[in-house]
Design a protein that fits this description.
Catalyzes the synthesis of dihydrouridine, a modified base found in the D-loop of most tRNAs. Specifically modifies U47 in cytoplasmic tRNAs. Pfam families: Dus. Its EC number is 1.3.1.89. Helices cover 37% and strands 7% of the residues. It is an alpha/beta fold. It has four domains: 158 residues, no CATH class; 42 residues; 260 residues, TIM Barrel; 117 residues, no CATH class. The strands form three sheets. An eight-stranded parallel beta barrel has the order 4-5-7-8-9-10-11-12, surrounded by five helices. It has a two-stranded antiparallel sheet with strand order 1-2. Helix 20 links the parallel strand 10 and strand 11. Helix 4 packs across helix 24 and helix 11 packs antiparallel against helix 12. The radius of gyration is 29 Å and the shape is globular.
């Protein structure tokens, strides 16, 4: 056994190779394509792939330094060759008739439609891990056989007898139809053969005698038994859908047109601005002892609305002197007795839903990769708390559909929240109100990002920039907490913006002065990004600072009848890559749990390892089934039409760009390993394990093709992070 070298994964010598090939070898039983235009075989293991010589002019030009991220990625949109009206695609008559700008020629659409994608039906239980060993092995064998089959070059087929029906594969399975008994993609579905019935030849063969819809000789099939079973399932969502947090009709339009009627946000932001102005007029000593900026906001909204009405009346050109006097009297009375006039019926912090998170497994908010299908995958392995991808507050209040899609929640996500990022209360408080009003029942918490290290966010004063402006952060937290009502507010932080650690000062104020419902701390500074080890000792110091502030508050509370304050849950984050890391950090720091980010990206089954306290030497075929699961979840989320398939393909490749970094346990000289240990080039215990470990984007696309069919010729995938950015494995939110 060789000596461990920090930074290098300890792989057994017999599995090491000289370099990564340009493309992995085919799976056992498959053949290399010999068609014209097929990819050339990869170089032998002991030879680096050949590179074309650069032109002389290009060789002389100074090259820009290659950094860790591909920031100018573009993804081509691939549509069907022939367009088809959405209503016709669903098997319905078009309401626009001849005035419709989309195609109604279903025969032409099917003639040019790409061939159906073969897809293996999932096991009856939905999870291969719950099957008996013999059934599990049989299913994984059939899955591997499908993967091998996908590697075979397509055989030359004779010209189809019926060109309209030539694209159909009646043996395939549509993930949406097999679960719900219907498919919203209809005729556009890339798995159409699973839910269509042939009743005759098409119009192309028998002319007017063709039956079926619009002369295709085919009919869409619906399965009433599956549909009824789906609607009768136990769920907190709508019976027809397994996703919640949809905007009501018209809300997005009113947000885009700036006509959304905010109820609380304008008043809250004005109160916070007045409070900040009053604090600015005090000396530092006076500000430290002043109640301004501390505790829950006490706002009488009716009084503020009455003042606004009186102010508007007094400013009219024809206003009488009595109107101005009435406004001045009301304003004077409000200033003199604001506390006494506060609305006692509003939701107070004590009435907020308390977060009971002790020992729960928290999947971090992950940019790009933390999508709903990936969260479903992690939930199947035992994750408990999920937070959606970071969204910008201004985009929510502008009604951007892409931002609102981030709050979508799968019905099986037990604890779910969304994360907001912004620089000012004027942005974040309105976003908090609209979230609480429109989707509040589907959110268990809202998180504020105070740790994003990205320059674009930091330079705007958002993300980790808030760490250097504690008073502004306090206004944001208190204002958002008021706007959210009973929905708890949490914050996610880093240790500081530079090497100087300052976040313990925020922990000393966050609960007692601002009323946060939970906190998460990433044990690195903004400057560190994801380099070096996370400082869990400092995380423990911040936990102590929070607990000390709560004890002091309970001892010095000015309200004798106030309930005793209980410390909110605190989660640590950074370098959790196995069950040993998890429990060691819990015991040494006193945190309530750990948020898991890169560990879940590299091996989503980490949640099972933690709950069962074991190292899982997962097989290559089980890992391939994870790919199948993600593809199935993606198709039911993004759709089974051409656009949905390629969106699923893109995000599946995003996931594979992280899971390929996993080094199988059976290849290691000893465990555990550190997350940032970079592996030398290696081969797996079988061809599939080697393929799943390949750092080549071509191989990731090849794996996706096994379940989503061959990628279109104009489709390509550029990874977000280059291979030399191993330490910065994910540009997360902080």
């Amino acid at each position: 056994m060789g000596e461990y070298q920090p930074g290098t994964a300890p792989i057994k010598p017999e599995f090491l190779r000289e370099s990564w090939p340009a493309r992995s070898e085919p799976l056992a039983g498959s053949a290399q394509s010999t068609e014209p235009g097929a990819e050339a075989p990869s170089a032998p293991d002991d030879e680096p792939p050949a590179e074309a010589p650069a032109p002389a002019a290009e060789a002389e030009r100074p090259r820009k330094r290659v950094r860790g991220q591909n920031k100018a990625r573009q993804f081509a949109r691939t549509d069907d060759i022939v367009s088809l009206c959405t209503q016709i695609a669903r098997g319905e008559p078009c309401a626009f008739g001849d005035q419709c700008k989309y195609g109604h020629d279903l025969c032409a659409y099917l003639t040019h439609k790409r061939r159906d994608i073969p897809f293996l039906a999932p096991p009856p239980t939905g999870s291969v891990r719950t099957l008996p060993p013999d059934e599990r092995d049989a299913y994984l064998d059939s899955l591997y056989a499908q993967a091998v089959q996908s590697e075979q070059p397509p055989a030359a087929a004779p010209p189809p007898a019926d060109p309209v029906q030539a694209s159909l594969d009646y043996s395939t399975e549509c993930p949406y139809f097999s679960e719900r008994g219907t498919c919203p993609a209809g005729w556009r579905c890339r798995f159409l053969g699973a839910h269509v019935r042939r009743v005759s030849a098409s119009h192309a063969c028998v002319g007017a005698e063709a039956q079926g819809m619009l002369g295709t000789g085919l009919e869409l099939v619906h399965d009433p038994a599956r549909a009824a079973a789906w609607r009768s399932r136990p769920t907190t969502a709508q019976p027809e859908n397994d996703e919640v947090n949809w905007l009501a009709p018209g809300v997005a339009k009113s947000l885009r047109s700036k006509k959304y009627a905010y109820d609380k946000a304008p008043i809250i932001t004005q109160v916070l601005a007045d409070e900040a102005q009053a604090l600015h007029a005090l000396s530092p000593a006076e500000a430290a002892t002043s109640p301004l900026g501390k505790g829950p906001l006490r706002i009488d909204y009716e009084q503020h609305r009455r003042l606004e009405r009186l102010k508007a009346a007094s400013m009219r050109p024809d206003a009488a002197e009595e109107a101005l006097e009435a406004y001045e009297d009301a304003l004077r009375n409000a200033r003199e007795g604001s506390d006494a006039a506060a609305d006692t019926a509003r939701v107070r912090p004590a009435e907020k839903r308390r977060l009971q998170w002790k020992g729960e497994l928290y999947l971090a908010p992950l940019t790009t990769t933390g999508n709903l299908p990936f969260r479903r995958l992690c939930a199947s392995f035992g994750s408990d708390i999920h937070c959606g991808e970071m969204g910008m507050a201004e985009s929510f209040t502008s009604g951007h559909a892409s931002e609102w899609s981030l709050v979508r929640r799968w019905e099986g996500e037990r604890i779910f929240g969304t994360q907001l990022c912004g620089a000012k209360p004027e942005f974040l408080v309105p976003a908090a109100e609209v979230l609480a009003r429109e989707v509040g029942t589907g959110l268990d918490f809202v998180d504020v990002n105070c740790g994003c290290p990205i320059d674009l966010v930091y330079n705007k004063g958002a993300g980790s920039a808030l760490l250097d402006h504690a008073n502004k952060l306090g206004r944001i937290v208190r204002g958002m907490s008021e706007a959210l009502g009973e929905v708890p507010l949490t914050i996610k932080l880093r240790t500081g913006t530079t090497a100087k650690q300052t976040t313990h000062k925020i922990f000393a104020r966050a609960q007692t002065e601002w009323g946060v419902g939970g906190m998460t701390l990433h044990g690195r500074s903004r400057k560190q990004r994801y380099k070096n080890d996370a400082d869990w000792a400092y995380i423990g110091q911040c936990v102590d600072a929070l607990h000390s502030s709560v004890r002091t508050w309970n001892e010095e509370s000015r309200w004798a009848d106030a309930p005793e304050m209980v410390p909110v849950p605190v989660y640590g984050n950074g370098d959790v890559y196995g069950w040993r890391d998890y429990y060691e950090h819990l015991e040494s720091t006193g945190v309530d749990g750990a948020m898991i980010a890169r560990g879940a990206l590299i091996k989503p089954w980490i949640f099972t390892e933690i709950k069962e306290r074991r190292d899982w030497d997962i097989s290559s075929r089980e890992r391939l089934d994870l790919v199948r699961q993600f593809a199935s979840y993606g198709l039911t989320h993004w759709g089974a039409d051409t656009q949905g398939v390629n969106t699923t393909r893109r995000f599946l490749c995003e996931m594979l760009s992280f899971t390929h970094r996993y080094v199988p346990l059976g290849l290691l000289e000893h465990v555990p390993v550190r997350m940032n240990d970079r592996p030398r080039p290696f081969r797996g215990r079988d061809a599939l394990e080697t393929l799943l470990s390949s750092p080549s984007a071509q191989d990731w696309t090849r794996i996706a093709d096994m379940f989503l069919g061959p990628a279109p010729s104009d489709w390509h995938f550029t990874p977000k992070h280059r291979s030399n950015a191993f330490d910065e494995a994910a540009e997360l939110q902080g």
